[in-house]
Design goal:
Elements lengths: L1 E7 L3 H10 L7 E7 L9 E3 L2 E3 L3 H10 L4 E3 L5 E5 L6 H9 E3 L9 E3 L1 H13 L2 H10 L6 E4 L16 H9 L2 H16 L5 E3 L7 E2 L3 E2 L27 H14 L1
Parallel strand pairs: 1-2, 1-6, 6-9, 7-8, 9-10
Antiparallel strand pairs: 3-4, 4-5, 11-12
Helix pairs in contact: 1-8, 3-6, 4-7
């Protein structure tokens, strides 16, 4: 039986919920969860290949997830890093203030080349908690690592007035496809230096207009601290267990 370690933040709940709700789906795989809301597990430390934290909030979440506070990476066949700052949001921020040369839309923003865009976005992704964690782990073990970026925000964001302006501007300018392609390319570039590291991109069937997650895959998303408690109806960040099931399906095909 293959042993997997899932490391991440509140977005781990989408995988954990499906995993616990469907115990017979994966007879040849066992998962251990190491997660905490925010950026991810706080104050991670290493003793050789043993990873642990003494942060009180982290320890509480480990008790909730039924996981020991110390795990030996060498006892796992693969690792999965979920979200931990790896998202489309930095790109949306760049496109709010910059116009990419060669993209067909009209703005008065500062002009930048596509190369400049990719470099800036790659740098932003490489400075996330998730990317830094991969770099740290890679110095200690060569086992396969799979990256699961944060899902795109719910399509409900497109109709909210108080948030999501950067995404609506992308939509209004008609550069959704170019933007998402730039995002996927930057993710690949950000992790290309790390051997045996694979990105599990967002399943195409969950994406709407290249920048949103279909509400079918966000409604009913649950909280990490209680997998039986749903996120507020106003939540636009988290995906549900159906999305988590698709990610697990992709993962099983890769391992």
């Amino acid at each position: 039986m293959k042993q997997g370690l899932i490391i991440g933040n509140s977005h781990v709940a989408m995988i954990a919920k499906f995993w616990h709700a469907n115990p017979d789906h994966y007879p040849d795989m066992n998962l251990t969860f190491m997660a905490q809301p925010g950026l991810g597990p706080k104050d991670i430390q290493f003793d050789g290949t043993v990873m642990y934290s003494t942060d009180p909030d982290f320890l509480q979440f480990q008790r909730t997830l039924g996981t020991k506070p110390r795990v030996d990476l060498e006892k796992f066949d693969f690792l999965v890093i979920v979200a931990c700052g790896l998202s489309f949001y930095p790109l949306a921020g760049i496109l709010r203030s910059c116009h990419v040369w060669g993209w067909d839309y009209n703005t008065q923003n500062q002009l930048i080349s596509s190369v400049c865009l990719q470099t800036a976005l790659m740098d932003s992704l490489q400075n996330t908690y998730g990317a830094k964690l991969v770099k740290t782990i890679r110095r200690r073990t060569a086992i396969p690592i799979y990256i699961v970026p944060q899902p795109l925000p719910s399509e409900q964001l497109s109709i909210l007035k108080q948030k999501g302006g950067n995404f609506r501007k992308i939509d209004m300018n008609g550069i959704n496809q170019q933007a998402y392609q730039a995002y996927e390319t930057a993710l690949e570039d950000a992790f290309s230096p790390h051997k045996n590291t694979t990105i599990i991109f967002q399943p195409k069937e969950t994406i709407k207009s290249n920048i949103y997650t279909r509400s079918t895959f966000t409604k009913g998303a649950v909280r990490l601290y209680n997998l039986n408690k749903q996120q507020p109806e106003t939540d636009i960040l988290h995906a549900n267990q159906d999305y988590g099931g698709l990610i697990l399906g992709k993962l099983t095909n890769l391992i």
